[in-house]
Design goal:
By secondary structure, this protein is mostly helical. It has two domains: 40 residues, no CATH class; 30 residues. The chain has three helices and no strands. The termini are far apart.
């Protein structure tokens, strides 16, 4: 789907540019292109497991802090 903006009667060039820019931002084309440009490597199983264990530790600490306000 192409994005275009035709100039309306008595519309300034600045306003036309602004309207076109809003249409591009709402469509999300730029974000899609930027994501496509960067290759993200999938983490190994070992790394995923280590991160999950860290998360569990942090959650346990936060849970303790919730009940013991002096810590």
């Amino acid at each position: 789907m192409a994005i275009y903006a035709k100039k309306r009667p008595e519309e300034s060039n600045d306003r036309l540019q602004q309207r076109f820019k809003q249409q591009v931002q709402k469509s999300g084309i730029i974000q899609k292109l930027r994501k496509r440009n960067i290759h993200v490597r999938t983490p190994s199983k070992r790394l995923v497991r280590i991160r999950a264990l860290k998360r569990e530790g942090f959650r346990a600490q936060n849970k303790k802090k919730k009940f013991y306000s002096n810590m």
